[in-house]
Design brief:
Elements (H helix, E strand, L loop, with lengths): L10 E4 L5 H12 L3 E6 L2 H13 L4 E5 L5 H15 L4 E4 L18 H29 L3 E5 L3 H4 L5 H21 L5 E7 L5 H6 L2 H9 L13 H8 L10 E4 L7
Parallel strand pairs: 1-2, 1-4, 2-3, 4-5, 5-6, 6-7
Helix pairs in contact: 1-9, 3-4, 4-6
The structure holds nicotinamide-adenine-dinucleotide (NAD).
Length: 256
């Protein structure tokens, strides 16, 4: 975890923050000095994470929040305001990914699956950004960090609904950055390569991790912790003039 970037005095809300990469984001920002609200549809895991990090002296609270439900989004933001005094950073991490596996051709994807993925992966970041806007304006140094994927840049075959949704996240990032830049709010997205989150490890074939490592300039498996440095930079004051960008973190597999 980075010890060089400070988020002292900042408040962050992370969606899908109970397990996997989201939980590592929560811990990374809390260790950098932020007060963090870990939200997730998996309330039990969110509570367990918050308890573990509180025991370590970190400012972390948890709340059940389904990112497709505007009322729950509002409630979580109000809780963050009441508990921590505001919201400076929104991390839109929740998504349907590993639960969509196994990989399959687009002819086997049903319209209902397509709609469900777009709702969680694309509409939810829009809903969360909209609900967070008054808080981020109030902050005067607001940050929205979306999570896309290198699959949207490389056009990986299979999981067409997922990959299309992550392409939409990149477009959302760019357009939203222009809409809110006047309020000193930045909007960026991180595009991770295949990452060894617990859910990915339990659903993606081991050979795929080896194959991904072989395509990288830095030839190893990507860990959730590899994403934290970029996240902290984008969440911090240091990135106040960086917005609308896709930040690829994949060990140099996809070179822009
Ligand atoms: N793991 C990878 O290889 C990889 C690669 C590129 C991008 N990503 C992206 O990184 C992010 C995290 O990936 P991960 O591997 O940790 O995934 P994960 O499936 O382990 O975690 C997703 C989290 O989102 C939560 N979630 C799902 N639906 C929700 C809803 N409706 N409301 C609230 N929370 C909900 C889940 O409970 C879970 O905690 C995702 O956006 C994913 O698309 C992952």
């Amino acid at each position: 975890m980075s010890k060089t970037i400070s988020l002292d005095g900042s408040v962050a809300v992370v969606t899908g923050g109970a397990v996997g990469i989201g939980a590592v984001y929560v811990e990374g920002m809390a260790r950098a000095g932020a007060s963090v609200l870990a939200t997730d549809i998996d309330e039990v895991a969110a509570i367990a994470l918050a308890k573990r990090l509180q025991a370590d002296g970190l400012q972390v609270e948890s709340m059940r929040m389904d990112v497709t439900d505007p009322a729950q989004i509002d409630e979580a933001l109000r809780f963050a305001q009441a508990t921590f005094g505001g919201v400076d950073i929104l991390v839109n991490n929740a998504a349907l990914f590993t639960t969509l596996l196994p990989m399959r051709p687009f002819t086997e994807i049903e319209s209902e699956d397509w709609a469900r993925v777009m709702k969680v992966n694309v509409e939810a970041p829009f809903l969360c950004a909209k609900a967070a806007l008054p808080y981020l304006r109030q902050s005067g140094r607001g940050r929205i960090i979306n999570i896309s994927s290198t699959t949207a840049l490389t056009g990986a075959p299979t999981l067409l609904h997922y990959i299309t949704s992550k392409g939409a996240v990149i477009a959302l990032t760019r357009a939203l950055a222009r809409e809110v830049g006047g309020d000193a709010i930045t909007v960026n997205n991180i595009a991770p390569g295949l990452t060894s989150s617990p859910t990915a490890l339990s659903t993606v074939d081991a050979e795929r991790f080896d194959a991904a490592a072989a395509t990288r300039a830095v030839k190893r498996h990507q860990q959730p912790e590899d994403l934290v440095g970029t996240l902290l930079f984008l969440a911090s004051e240091a990135s106040s003039f960086v917005t609308g960008q896709t930040h690829v973190v994949d060990g140099g597999a996809f070179l822009q």
